[in-house]
Every structure is written in C-alpha cells, then in structure tokens.
Backbone:
C-alpha cells in the first residue's frame, strides 16, 4: 500500500507540474501575447506628378500590417517588412497631400503610425517639401536676419520689429525658382497672423532683389500686397484690401505662387481658404482647400535670373507651415 501511495503521490506531483508548465507556456492569443512593435523608416514621402512606387522599411514583430489612405490616389501594400506606397499620376494643377495610416493586425492593442505624402502638380518632376509643420533645418538661410524665428504650436513663427522685414529662404540644392521659357514652378505656404504682416518671397537672389506677397489677415477680411524689390528699391505691384473671408475657415490661409512655361514673363498669386482635419499632435492633420479667396496675375518686365523661395514677416510677423515647392 505504501508503494501504491508513493506512486499516486508522484503522479499527482507530475500532473501539477505539467498543469503549471502549460499555464506558463507562450500563448500567442492569450494574456502573454507580446505588445506589437511598429517602426517606420520614414514618416514623409514626396512624389513627382507622374506618381510611381516608393518603398518604406518597416520594423515589426507581427505578420500582418493594414494600410488605410485618406485619398484615393495613394495606396500601400505590405510585404516582407517593406511598405510599398503607390501614387497615381496627378493631372491637376494643385499640389496635393494625403496620409497613409499604418496599423498592426493582431486582434489586441494595435500599434499605429502614419506616412505623410506630398505630390507635385501636373508637369512637375521635382518636388521639395520642408516645414510641413515645425521643421527648420540647415536648408533654410537668412536673407534678412531682423527679428526672431521660433517653433510654436506645430509651426514656425517669425516676430519682426516694426516695419522691418525678417526673411528666410529655402536653399536646398536644386530648389531655385528659375523662370524661363522651359521652366515653371509652383510653391505654397500656409500663413496665419492676426492683423500683422506675413507672407512669402520668391526669386530672391539677395536682400536687394526679390518679390514678396504680404498678407494681413483678420477674422473677416484679408489685405494683400504684392511688391517687387529691385536693386533695393521697393516697387508696388498691387494693394488689394477688404477681401471677404468665410467665417468657418481655418485660421491659416494658403499663399501660392505659380509660373508657367507658355508665359514665362508672368506669375500668378493665389490665396486659398483651408479646412484642416485631424490632430497635429497625432500627425493626422490634412489641410483641404475650401475656397479660392484671391487670385491675380502679374507681368514681370524685369526678370531676375533665378533665386529662391521663402517666407517673411514684419510688424509682428506670423506663423508658417506646409512649405512645398514643385518645379519641372
């Protein structure tokens, strides 16, 4: 009997060990499931107008990744730790923006990230995008260093004293805004201010030769000034006050400068109202054009041979984001 008792004792001890061991085993669908990991090598891509494919490396510990795009012209496919983003050709005159949201698929607490996409307008084969929100790098050079430049509220802010301009230009290699019979460019910047002056500069060779577009924005109306500084002399092109703005617009307006190849002696200024969706802190905001608030075309009788695009402020200055430049 004693031997039989010892046998049952050993049996129950082994059964208990087996039971405990099974409870502690790795269970891919149970409470011991590891947290999903999702790291994306680049959170921003720029496509030329003809579209194409662009791979993004993914670091993850899951087998399945799901992508969801905010626009029909961009899509994503995941395979072998690579996310391939595909953009359709842009046959429109507008530079366009989208988000591709990336999510792990495990059935648990998913990891998420997103990739911001900028695509050039029709005919542009080079696109430069900087300062989508608050990015200020060594490609930005001071043309006039008056005032201060800071990062605030997911944007770049300039604060300029009195009626003195403070100007920064974007001088990444190849980004010069050269106008000729065979080149055209389009660039845009989102601008916000409150009864101050802020806007864009272009064809800026030096502090004595450039064009600038000044915006004075208040809740109900807009004042636009377009001037040329040539050999240090400020020559007014236009002063357009009292442009009515919508009450439900975003606080930012988009200032866009466009040149063409069929009329290289001209440039057009477009000002758009925007409606922004999403949350900047979560990298999910996208600005959508709501209305064309202002447009005017100017003849440039004294073409400057090249130069750069940039931003400026005076009499208090303003906020800037989404600086995008496209050219052919």
Residues:
């Amino acid at each position: 009997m004693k031997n039989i008792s010892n046998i049952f004792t050993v049996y129950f001890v082994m059964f208990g060990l087996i039971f405990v061991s099974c409870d502690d085993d790795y269970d891919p669908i149970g409470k011991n499931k590891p947290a999903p990991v999702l790291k994306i090598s680049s959170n921003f891509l720029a496509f030329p107008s003809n579209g194409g494919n662009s791979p993004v490396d993914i670091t993850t510990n899951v087998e399945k990744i799901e992508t969801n795009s905010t626009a029909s012209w961009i899509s994503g496919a995941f395979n072998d730790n690579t996310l391939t983003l595909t953009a359709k050709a842009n046959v429109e005159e507008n530079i366009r923006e989208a988000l591709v949201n990336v999510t792990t698929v495990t059935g648990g607490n998913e990891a998420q990230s997103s990739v911001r996409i900028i695509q050039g307008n029709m005919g542009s084969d080079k696109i430069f995008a900087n300062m989508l929100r608050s990015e200020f790098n060594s490609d930005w050079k001071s043309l006039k260093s008056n005032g201060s430049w800071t990062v605030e509220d997911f944007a770049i802010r300039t604060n300029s004293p009195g009626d003195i301009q403070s100007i920064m230009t974007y001088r990444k290699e190849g980004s010069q805004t050269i106008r000729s019979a065979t080149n055209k460019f389009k660039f845009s910047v989102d601008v916000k201010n409150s009864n101050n002056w802020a806007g864009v500069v272009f064809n800026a060779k030096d502090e004595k030769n450039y064009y600038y577009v000044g915006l004075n924005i208040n809740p109900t109306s807009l004042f636009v000034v377009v001037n040329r500084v040539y050999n240090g002399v400020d020559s007014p092109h236009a002063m357009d006050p009292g442009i009515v703005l919508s009450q439900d617009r975003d606080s930012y307006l988009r200032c866009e400068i466009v040149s063409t190849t069929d009329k290289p002696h001209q440039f057009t200024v477009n000002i758009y109202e925007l409606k922004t969706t999403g949350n900047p802190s979560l990298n999910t905001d996208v600005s959508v054009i709501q209305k064309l608030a202002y447009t005017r075309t100017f003849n440039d009788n004294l073409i400057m041979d090249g130069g750069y695009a940039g931003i400026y402020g005076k009499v208090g200055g303003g906020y800037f984001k989404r600086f995008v430049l496209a050219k052919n």
Remarks:
- The two ends are 96 Å apart (CA to CA).
- The mean pLDDT is 87.
